[in-house]
């Protein structure tokens, strides 16, 4: 198989997972374990999170909806309190791997993200991330196009824009639900659990030395 493109998710792949921050927040507040993740997972195509990532609701509505949804699962968590927890730290070894991949293959990023003003001004972080974003030939952001993973259309849009055959693509994500449509299209998929594991599987898939 000749690889033409490597497509990345952003959060939890090129950055540390927000799940670690969610767990700390829950412990500090005495909240039920995994209440934030369970709220995100319940009705995951149409819940507060999904609507916000497609830019269908504003921050105040998201705040209220998330509070209602989390309360139904056992404890109220305000949506506004969850947003600052999303800022993972960049994983330098993954950024280095991306640079080496870019030298050989087309690169893409499909990210379920939030409307630009949702998390407030993060000027330093924005610049930091801009340096990574220029390494992609194409970036698709859910909040800009009104579609989010795992909608199959978002993956099709990426392969059409990159002009590649999905059978010749590798796709990395930290969520299994987002890997399924890519795999069904014929992509080689990598579920990211750590940088070392992801880089080893990427090396096997691409034949490149990335570490």
TrEMBL record:
It comes from the Bacteria. Keywords: Acetylation, Hydrolase. One of its GO terms (molecular function) is hydrolase activity. The keyword Nucleus does not apply. The keyword Hydrolase applies. InterPro entries: ACAD10-like, HAD-like_sf, HAD-SF_hydro_IA, HAD-SF_ppase_IA/epoxid_hydro_N, HAD_sf, PGP-like_dom2. SUPFAM superfamilies: HAD-like. NCBIfam families: HAD-1A3-hyp (TIGR02247), HAD-SF-IA-v3 (TIGR01509). PANTHER family: HAD FAMILY PHOSPHATASE, HYDROLASE, PUTATIVE (AFU_ORTHOLOGUE AFUA_1G12880)-RELATED. This is Hydrolase of the HAD superfamily. It comes from Bradyrhizobium ottawaense.
């Amino acid at each position: 198989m000749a690889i033409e493109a490597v497509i990345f998710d952003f959060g939890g792949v090129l950055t540390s997972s927000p799940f670690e921050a969610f767990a700390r927040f829950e412990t500090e507040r005495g909240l039920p374990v995994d209440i934030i993740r369970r709220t995100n997972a319940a009705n995951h195509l149409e819940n507060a999170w999904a609507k916000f990532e497609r830019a269908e609701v504003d921050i105040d509505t998201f705040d209220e909806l998330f509070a209602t949804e989390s309360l139904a699962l056992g404890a109220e968590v305000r949506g506004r309190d969850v947003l600052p927890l999303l800022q993972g730290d960049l994983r330098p070894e993954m950024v280095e791997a991306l640079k080496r991949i870019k030298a050989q293959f087309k690169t893409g990023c499909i990210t379920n993200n939030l409307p630009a003003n949702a998390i407030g001004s993060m000027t330093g972080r924005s610049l930091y991330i801009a340096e990574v974003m220029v390494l992609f030939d194409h970036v698709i952001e859910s909040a800009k196009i009104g579609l989010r993973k795992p909608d199959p259309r978002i993956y099709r849009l990426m392969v059409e824009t990159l002009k590649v055959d999905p059978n010749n693509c590798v796709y990395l994500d930290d969520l299994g639900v987002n890997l399924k449509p890519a795999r069904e299209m014929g992509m080689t998929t990598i579920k990211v659990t750590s940088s070392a594991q992801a880089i080893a599987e990427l090396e096997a898939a691409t034949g490149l030395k990335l570490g």
